[in-house]
Amino acid sequence: MKRMIRPFSLWMLLAAILLAWQSAAAQELPDFTVLVEEAAPGVVNISTTRMVQSRENPLQGFGGQELPEIFRHFFGDRFPEPPGGQAPGRPQERQSLGSGFIISDDGYILTNAHVVDGADEILVRLSDRRELQAELVGSDERTDVALLKVDSEDLPPLKLGDSDTLKVGEWVAAIGSPFGFDHSVTAGIISAIDRTLPRDAYVPFIQTDVAINPGNSGGPLFNLDGEVIGINSQIFTRSGGFMGLSFAIPINVAMDVADQLRDDGQVRRGWLGVMIQPVSRDLAESFGMDGPSGALIADLDPEGPAARDGLQAGDVILEVDGSLVHDSSTLPRLIGRTAPGSEVELVLMRDGERRQLSITVGDWPDAERATASRPQESRQTRLGISVGELERDEREALGIEGGVRVREVDPNGAAAAAGIRPGDILVSIDHRAVSDPTQLVELAGELPTDRAVPVRLYRDGRSLFVALRLADD
Fold it and tell me: How far apart are CA 159 and CA 228, in angstroms?
């Protein structure tokens, strides 16, 4: 006689299966307890004091209106001025909070440069509640890395990982002092790697969804092995608080900077002396490339290493010492981490052909060089623009021998479609230099209609390329 499964027993069976599934799913999630127990002693709280005029906005730095709207450093707020504070205009103290971590047992500590920027006094609080005065060994604004030193021995340094081996989707954790709450732990995954942020050309940021808030800045980002793989530095926010996007400086980048600060007191970077721009699909076609990649040289410093060793405007750099230049943001990182005086082998595209060129990298100059521009006259061309001659002083100011000024642009013409604007200075078209308006008319009449051609311009003193495509006649 067959036995029937009663409804009650069936429900019990389903419940047991569900519980087993939930238990298995929970076991797959990472456990950060051991990591935190071992790493927490190496994470420190950093407070700074600086003297300011009392009319300075006390909320600047967190919640204040002066902060950038999108990307901002998120390290701690300036504490609000107490009631009955000092009279306007008198110096008074401002205090700020951040995080850091120990990298050597003899007292070296890493944090963000913006955490200690302008500080008159730096105080480091250890996990055992000891408070130590810190000396600023050096800081590097371009990478937002600072190295501190405290007078103490036998400190617990953190293990350092290899940020070059990171993969998207890895679990990571952060320990820091958000809003002054010491040794707070948050966790998440790596959302992306090699992110480029505005004004941060030398840092391939690690993007995560780890919850980061004011006071976390300068703290460590860990992998599951308890190794530091980054320094928490910035968040993307429109509210002033965490919105799901945080960015960390790779530890390999940070340690290279820290080693130079400790040994030399400054950071030296490789420099080519070029102005670059991205390669669009149309520009890639105009340069005879299979697809958009590399960094397009829009202009050169006439006294820089690139001009000295044979690079030209219009060259597209594809490789540096065997490393691919995926886009224009990759080139500054590859050159920046090259020791000044070193020779690098470049693979580039010039006149539709791949070439190799050796360049001796220079040292980043103390001051940026700049160029300027000015207006004059006109003549109609096939391109849908009116152009005028350049005065000699204009050419000399830009360091060019020819060129014409764009005076008017037909909104329905090929030039407008390419992005050419009134005021632009047109210096070459389809790899041929433009000397005056008459010659431009001749060159425009010879342009093909079956492909895009590169046009080199100066705009607001800066050189760039656009891709121009003529309609069939």
Answer: 6
Q: Which residue from 429, 354, 349 is spatially nearest to 385, judged by alpha carbons? A: 429
Catalytic-residue membership of 301: no
Nearest alpha-carbon partner for 14 in 26, 25, 22, 2 = 22
Catalytic-labelled residue, pool 99, 177, 217, 293:
217
Of 47, 96, 99, 114, the catalytic one is 114
The DSSP H or E segment spanning 123 is: strand 121-125
Beta strands in 198-257 (DSSP E): 200-208, 220-222, 228-236, 246-250
pLDDT digit string, tens, across residues 316-359:
999 999 999 988 888 988 998 898 999 999 999 998 899 999 99
> How far apart are the C-alpha atoms of 371 and 253, rounded to whole Å?
32
Q: Tell me what the mean pLDDT of segment 277-281 comes to.
A: 89
What pTM was computed for the model?
Answer: 0.66
- Give per-residue burial for 278-306: e unless 16+ CB within 10 Å, then b: ebbebbbbbbebeebbbbbbbbbbeebbb
- Name the catalytic one among 144, 282, 309, 315: 144
What secondary structure, in 3-state letters, does 135-165 show?
EEEEEECCCCEEEEEECCCCCCCCCECCHHH
Q: Is residue 431 annotated as part of the catalytic site, yes or no? A: no
Q: How many CB atoms lie within 10 A of CB 218?
A: 35
Contact criterion met (CB below 8 Å) for 100 and 176: no
Q: How far apart are CA 450 and CA 473, in angstroms?
A: 11
Q: Is 217 a catalytic residue?
A: yes
